[in-house]
Amino acid sequence: MSTAPLNPARAAHESIPRPYVPSPVARIALPLWERHQTIIAALATVGIIIHLILRFAFHTAQATYDMPLWITLAIGGTPLVANLTVKLFKREFGSDLLAGISIVTAVLLGEYLAGALVVLMLSGGEALERFAVQSASSVLRAMAARMPSIAHRKEGDKLVEIPLSDVAIGDTLQVFPHEICPVDATVIEGHGTMDESYLTGEPFRMPKTPGSTVLSGAINGDSALTIRADKLAVDSRYAKIMQVMRASEQDRPRLRRLGDKLGAFYTPLALGIALLAWLVSGTADRFLAVLVVATPCPLLIAIPVAIVGAISLAARRGIIIKRPVILEQVATCRTLIFDKTGTLTYGEPRLSSIVTAPGINEQEILTLTASLERYSKHPLASAVLKAGEECGIQLVEVNQISEKPGEGLRGTIDGKTLRITSRKKIAAMNGNALATLDQLPPTTGGLECIVLTDGNYAATLTFRDEPRHEGVAFVHHLAPRHQFDRLMLVSGDRESEVRYLAEQVGISEIHAGKTPEEKLQIVREETTRSNTLYPRPLGRQRRRRPRPAQRHHHRSRRRGHHGQLPQARRRAVPH
C-alpha cells in the first residue's frame, strides 16, 4: 500500500537529483590533484638543490647524489609525461610535447639533471599561471556561498530556523535587515527596500510593500519583511542563475594557446634536427643535446610570467580575468558586448536634473530637500545628499519629521511644510491635486520625486544611473584602436534607461529587459558568428551613508517611476 507524501512540495524537491558530494578521501585528493603542478615544481626545485649539495658540497657517490633526481623524475616526471602522451595520441603537438620527449630521452641516457630541469620548467610555468588565476576561479564558489543555507520560518508565534531545502511553497518566512532573500516570494507584511541589481540590472533599490514580489538573491534593506514563498529554493531565480553559470563553465569551448600554435610546427622541426644530429654524429647524446637546447624554455616560462603580470595589473584596476587564454585571444575579437549597471554606469542613482516651478530657486529646493532627506532611509535619499555635498550647500534644521509608509516624507523648515512624494500619490490627493498635476513637467526616463511646499508644487527631481565620466572616450576609441566593428549593450534594465545610456556613450545596438539567462544566450549566439568579448561585473556593492541615531524609527516610503514602478519592475523581471 502506497502512502501519499505529507508535503507535496517537499517531495517534489527531494525528487530533484542532488549534486555530487565527494567522499572524505576525494575531498583531500581533489585539491591535491588540482595543485599537482605546483607540487611537482616544488619537488623538482628541492630535488635539484639536494642533488647539487650532495654532489659538490659533500662529494658523495653518484648513486647517492642522483637519488633526489630519480625521485623527482619518478614522482614529478611520470604524470607530466603521461599527460603529454595522451596529447600525442590526440594529435595535439604543443610546445610542451618537446619537453616531454626531452624528459624521456634524458632518463634513457642517464642524464637525470637535464631531465629534472625540464620537469621544473614545464611544471613551473603552469604553476605560475594557476597561481595568477586562483582567485578568479573561485567566482562560482563565491556565488554559491552568497546564498543563505537557512531560512526563518514562522510557525505560529515562533520563528524557526530551517534548512533552505525544507522551504515549501506557501511557507511564511521572515527576512531580517541586510539578509539575502532565500526564495522567490511575495511580501505579506512590512515596508522596506531590496537591492536587486545583482539579478535584474536595475541600479536602484526597489521599494517593497505588501503584495510586492521579491527575488531570491536580492539583498534586503534596513527593515524586516515577512514573505510568502512562491517557489522552492531550487526553482527560484538565484538557483536558475547558478545553473546557467555552471553550465557555461562546463560547456566552454577549448581554445588553442599561443604556445600550442607555435608548437604545432616547431616540435616536428626540432625533432627532425635532433634526429639529423644523431645520425651525423652517431651518438644519442647529440639527440638529447639538441632536444634540451630546442625545448622552448622561454616560451614555457615567459607566457605564464606575462600572464601573471597582466592578471595582477588587471586585478589592481578591479578587473578579474577568469581564463588566461582570453589575454591571447582578445586581439582577435571584433564584437564587444557591454553590460549596463556597474560597467558603463556607476551602478547607483544620481540626481540628474531639478525642474522647479516659476519663481523658485533651484539651489533653495536642493537645500530644503537635502535637509529633509538626511532623515530618510529611502534609496534616493543618498543621491540627493550627495548632490547637495557637491554643490556645497549648508543643511538647515528640520522639525516635525514624518515618513509614513506609502505617503512620502514630510517635515517643517522655517515654518514651511515640505513634502517629498510621487506623481501617483499627488493624483490620489484631495484638494488642489489636479492643479498640481497640471504644473508637473512631462515624464522622462529614470526615477523621479515631486517636492511640495505648503501643498503647492515646487520642483521635480529626476534620478538616473549616470554613465561613467570616462565611458564616452572609452567606447569611441574601441574601433580605431582595437578594430571592434560591432558594439552591443545588453541589460536587464528598462528600455528607456538602456537607450538613454546608449545615446550618451555612442552605442547603437541595445537589448533591454534581459535576464541573466537571456544575456548568456545572446553571448553564445554572437560567439558563433565571430570572436566576442563580454566584460561583465561580478557583483555590485552599495556605499552606505551613516545615519543619525534618531532616524531608526523612520520607514521607507514609496516613490514611483512616474507612478508606475511596480509594473516597470515586473517587466524587467520576467518569470
List keywords for this structure.
single chain; 23 helices; Calcium-transporting ATPase, cytoplasmic transduction domain A; 575 residues; disordered N terminus; Calcium-transporting ATPase, cytoplasmic domain N; 19 strands; alpha+beta
Kindly describe this structure.
With 575 residues, the chain is of the alpha+beta class. Among the domains are: 25-137 and 257-308, no CATH class; 148-248, Calcium-transporting ATPase, cytoplasmic transduction domain A (Distorted Sandwich), CATH 2.70.150; 350-464, Calcium-transporting ATPase, cytoplasmic domain N (3-Layer(aba) Sandwich). Helix content is 48%, strand content 16%. The chain has 23 helices and 19 strands. The strands form four sheets. Strands 2-1-3-9-4-7 form a six-stranded antiparallel β-sheet, with no helix packed on it. Helix 3 (36-57) packs antiparallel against helix 7, helix 6 (95-108) packs parallel to helix 11 (258-281) and helix 16 (362-373) crosses helix 17 (381-391). The protein starts with 7 loop residues before the first helix and ends with a helix.
